[in-house]
Task: inverse folding
């Protein structure tokens, strides 16, 4: 389906006009000036060529510039706010909410790794192993074996084997780390799956598994992606590392708030128990 050929008034996006037009553009779009400036700088609004546009993503597209589709900045901002609200609601309902972050493309790997490690969430940045959700019982056994092997190595228990056998164990550990390192401590299925780039075939497997098990999916969806199987769509450029970082920073603000409350409650309970003992 062909994208609407109307030309977008994007002179405000050009570097030479950006500062002078930022205030008026901010008022027009009803986006805080500092946030709008950051969105423009990250290139969050760039999509793909019109020929690659997924029909159901047209509602988020403003038009074209240099024969490349351009997202509506106001709609991006609104959908990020909706994602924040959704996440806040989920965290209110479950303070122990487990989010699995998935992003195996080059621009997504580092931002995904950073947010997951910051909040101690599971992540996948190499390859989605088919059956991670739908065959979780067997996956969990593999994770258990992986951790046991790591523990044996740490205790020096593998040194009793021959050099060849030790080398085999080392290679096995490296293989398991690449496959399962980010989900090593996953004890149960996650409560939410977050994905960067839904067009990746490997990611589509994860989406199908999540849909089948009714695990909600939140995702950054570019103009070439199918939004249908996604519960919370964030329309944005999924090829820009800085755009991905910008979105994850907004989500991190919500997570941080609830992690802080959770830790304060935990410390209060521990303090009360300590006082009772004394």
Result:
């Amino acid at each position: 389906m062909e994208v609407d050929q109307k030309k977008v008034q994007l002179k405000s996006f050009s570097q030479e006009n950006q500062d002078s037009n930022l205030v008026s553009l901010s008022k027009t779009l009803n986006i805080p000036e500092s946030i709008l400036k950051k969105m423009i700088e990250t290139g969050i609004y760039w999509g793909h060529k019109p020929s690659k546009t997924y029909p159901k993503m047209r509602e988020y597209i403003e038009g074209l510039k240099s024969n490349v589709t351009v997202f509506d900045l106001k709609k991006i901002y609104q959908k990020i706010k909706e994602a924040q609200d959704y996440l806040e609601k989920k965290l209110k309902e479950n303070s122990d909410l487990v989010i699995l972050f998935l992003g195996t493309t080059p621009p997504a790997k580092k931002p995904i790794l950073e947010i997951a490690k910051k909040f101690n969430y599971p992540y996948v940045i190499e390859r989605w192993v088919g059956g991670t959700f739908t065959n979780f019982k067997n996956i969990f056994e593999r994770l258990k074996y992986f951790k046991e092997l790591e523990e044996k190595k740490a205790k020096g228990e593998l040194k009793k084997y021959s050099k060849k056998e030790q080398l085999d164990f080392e290679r096995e550990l490296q293989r398991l780390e690449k496959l399962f390192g980010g989900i090593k401590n996953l004890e149960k299925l996650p409560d939410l799956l977050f994905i960067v780039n839904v067009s990746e075939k490997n990611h589509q497997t994860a989406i199908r598994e999540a849909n089948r098990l009714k695990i909600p999916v939140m995702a950054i969806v570019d103009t070439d992606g199918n939004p249908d199987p996604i519960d919370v769509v964030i329309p944005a450029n999924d090829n820009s590392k800085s755009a991905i970082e910008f979105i994850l920073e907004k989500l991190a603000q919500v997570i941080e708030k609830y992690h802080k409350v959770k830790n304060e409650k935990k410390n209060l309970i521990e303090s009360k128990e300590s006082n009772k003992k004394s």
